Amino acid sequence: MASCGVAPPIAVARPPSARGSFVRFPLPRIRCLPRGRSGGPSQANPRLFLSFPLLRRRGCRLSPTSAVDSDSSDLPVHQDLKLLGFLFGCLQSSVFREWDAMTARFAGAANVPFLLLQLPQIILNYRNLVAGNKAALFAVPWLGMLTGLLGNLSLLSYFAKKRETEAVLVQTLGVLSTYAVISQLAVAESMPLPHFIVTSVVIGAGLVLNFLNYFGWLSEGVWRFWEDFITVGGLAVLPQVMWSTFVPFVPNSILPGLFSSIGAVVAVVMARTGKLSEKGAKFVGSISGWTATLLFMWMPVAQMWTSYLNPDNIQGLSAISMLLAMIGNGLMIPRALFIRDLMWFTGSSWAAFLHGWGNLVCMYCCDSISREFFFAATLGLFLWLGIALWRDTIAYGHGSPIKSLEELVSGK
Description:
The protein has 15 helices and 4 strands. It is an all-alpha fold. Helix 4 runs parallel beside helix 7 and helix 13 (342-365) packs antiparallel against helix 14.
């Protein structure tokens, strides 16, 4: 342990290079003293000592720079700037590390609402299967579940590559829970058996490859092939799902998925053969993550479109499920903002606001939920987002949350 103190007032000197009456204040050196040593806070300048509470708690002591040293020409201004940066780092590092750990715990805690989100459906399907009521499982669209499953798998690959442990656990849970529902649909013969077999092979291979890569046991060539596979698959599925949402207002066709898959294959081949620029190849590498995010972003749009066409069906939505979706995605927003991951932040924010809160708005307008429930959920979401922005601003030492959002968008 160490105790802190501040030495007598800092000497002031005019460097030879100074112009006019400008006086440079040399910054203090910082050192730590063991507890019980003389020269503690009682012998220091109390006003200066109290102005650095974080230094006082961290065991740092300010030592003055002598007038002789400051007058020397071999102490350039940039050294003072380095010391100033170290001083601010000492003040902010504790807050930064604390918020870093808290955002990671928030992302890990998102497993709880996401698990509860699918668990009621799994239990209900099991009871219907045991009772021999297979027809009840046809109410669950297997194509929509498959879309969410592929989105989870693609995002698992994205976060496994970035070594984001909490997000990897969330996406793995999403893959396993959704696959459990799809397996029940296959048992009830709601999902065609060939489709289920292919899906099972892809999911099994994807889980194994992702975890081998996460622990560094997978060759780069195999991982690159997997990334190309999910890139082509994601680009083939996304336009087709978006097109199918508006059937019968648009003709039923497989052309959107066919054209986009051909374009994806061409882009991947050009990237691997060096036909694209470095920026273009980097863009192709990020497609799989963005297509997975867009798949999740499209799911609430499809749900709200269905509710718009058939307002009576909104009574079948579960307000608790929508609330759990809002909470689960909302818990991941601080982490995505903290590490400046625009894709993760976009997907989590969109899902929290549109899939969770947006559907609650529709349910409130249709008198499906009470006013107290809706306003409590609304207040909680906006208050949580405000706290995340405020704490991120403090952790990075910015003067406004706008700066954090600018860094998020620019990637700097």
